[in-house]
Amino acid sequence: MTSPADQGHVAAAGDVATLDPDEARAPAGRAVPWRRIAVITALIVVAVVLAYVRSGSGVVVVQAVATGVLIGGVYGLIAMGLTLIFGVLDIVNFAHGSFLALALFLTFGLAQAGLHPYLALAVSVPAMFLLGVLVQRGILAGAMGKPLENQLLITLGISLIIENALLLFFGANPRSVPLPGDRGVPIFEAVANLSRILAFVGALLLAGLLYLLLQRTRLGTAIRAVAANDTGAQLVGIDTRVIYAVTFALGTACAGAAGTLVAPLVTIEPTTGALFNIVAFVVVVLGGMGNVVGALVGGLVIGLAEQLGGIYLPGQSPLLSVFIVFVLVLFLRPQGLFGRSA
């Protein structure tokens, strides 16, 4: 018989919009953190104003904001897959960026065969979903419940295997995937490439579909129940092995979708996924571990920080401003922007 505590955990999982176990135990109907959102928005406005003062050019600031928002949406999609895996399986997946790199090369191959780069989503997403199922069931299932370092080493090993396999088969020469009809599109006083806009719109649509899946379907309810309490979920008849495999596959499919979306924007190399992996981990921790919505918001914040940092600190790596924001958030709010205190 299910204990009252387990029943409470499973019931709560059906009513909340997060995979953070602490969040999942919150009462149903908990108010949206409008104050937190307002503070984040106010800080972004202040950062934009200071960037204008620093540069003295409204065009430069508008361009930075537009570029930051557009790339931030893609960061959010990548981080949503990563945080989904952590929230349910409690695994820190170091292979996430390598799955993205694999999707980049898959998109490149399909584009070389004559397929439109973004139509490659119809191939890359199912392919990466299937790969995620195989990896979870064939490799990671045995590490469930084992010490954290075991899981870290396994996912790191998977990452190294993928990167070196890509290097072996494709070589180290950089490649690119041009988007047919790509052109500059005016946005207020800024100009953004059509490929960047399409990547942003695609990322938001896929993120919205993932959110609806988690919130409005029986599968999503089961996923959130397992995230809240896997033992309680088993007691009410949920096959946690299937949920683990599907969840990991969904996270991997997010990486695959992001890889296809950014293919026209980046130089494709076996190690390209490593940079996205770093940013994704920053976004996940920034938004709150296991919080899907926090990952999307965190992606937008990091995208803006990356671009505005080029105004504040010209000539420096874009990652410098990203890690400055990251360290400040960890110092002021260690659980992340949308996480809950332990």
UniProtKB/TrEMBL annotation:
It holds the Pfam family BPD_transp_2. One of its GO terms (molecular function) is transmembrane transporter activity. The keyword Transmembrane applies. GO terms for biological process: amino acid transport. It is found in: Cell membrane. The chain crosses the membrane at residues 34-53, 60-85, 91-111, 118-140, 152-172, 193-214, 242-266, 278-305, 311-332. It comes from the Bacteria. The keyword Nucleotide-binding does not apply. GO terms for cellular component: plasma membrane. Its main location: membrane. It is a multi-pass membrane protein. Keywords: Amino-acid transport, Cell membrane, Membrane, Transmembrane, Transmembrane helix, Transport. Belongs to the binding-protein-dependent transport system permease family. LivHM subfamily. This is Amino acid/amide ABC transporter membrane protein 1, HAAT family. It comes from Micromonospora humi.
